[in-house]
């Protein structure tokens, strides 16, 4: 009888472990997609500018798309180089990154027509306001430290 109880207990333990293993989430080695970031996950700001989306919104020409993509790649390279520079202090890096973003923005303004640039600024402002509103909705939803269960 004791052997039977041990066998049943071992079988139950085995089945519960295998059932749990099947329901645990699998880690993927793939990078998160833009959809992942659109759902509000962290690092959304680093998802990158999708120039093809902007091309349809702003009615860009093929030449403008090519120029914008080249500008974006050059900016990424410069930003990575700046981040990897260990000789600069954090404040110096921040200042240089800000300057680099301003330069890239000025270059983008040269690529776009005045109407496209105005529309681009309006769309960016709307996106920023939507993000701020979404962030505002999240604020205050978590209980304070003393109120946690």
UniProtKB/TrEMBL annotation:
This protein's record includes keyword Iron: no
Keyword line: Coiled coil, Signal
Region annotation Disordered: where it falls in the sequence: 22-44, 123-149
Keyword Nucleus on entry: no
Domain of life: Bacteria
InterPro entries in UniProt: LTXXQ
Signal peptide range: 1-21
Coiled-coil region list: 83-110
Name listed for the protein in its UniProt record: Periplasmic repressor CpxP
